[in-house]
Amino acid sequence: MTSRDVEIPRAAYGLAGTARRPDDAVAISFRRARLHGGVWGSYLAGGVLGAFLALHWDLWSLALPLAVLAVLIGMDVARRA
User: What is the residue range of 74's domain?
Assistant: First the structure.
């Protein structure tokens, strides 16, 4: 979360007066901020969804995260092959 909080102001201050190119420091800061924001948002969504599912599905609430993890592992293995 600290990295995200560093990258957002860096990108905002760097945006003033510089052209945006894909290798530009501002563009890199925006990409990093999006990455860190996505990770933070995933933690938040997982916590909310996990709490909701735990109330309704009890132990079966672990099935959804394990299925998503299995799919991601399969995609990673397929991509490396």
Answer: 2-80
Q: What predicted TM-score, i.e. pTM, was given to this entire model?
A: 0.59
Q: Alpha-carbon distance 74 to 60, whole Å?
A: 22
Looking at 16-81, list the stretches that DSSP marks H as alpha helix, in order from N- to C-terminal side. 25-57, 63-80
8 Å CB contact between 39 and 45 = no
**In the structure encoding, which two tokens stand for residue 66, read together?**
């394990």
Q: At what angle do helices 25-57 and 2-15 cross, to 10 degrees?
A: 140
How many domains are there within the chain?
Answer: 1
pLDDT digits (tens, 9 = 90+) for 49-61: 989 989 998 889 8
Please say whether the beta carbons of 69 and 30 come within 8 A: no
Written as one letter, the residue type at 32 is R
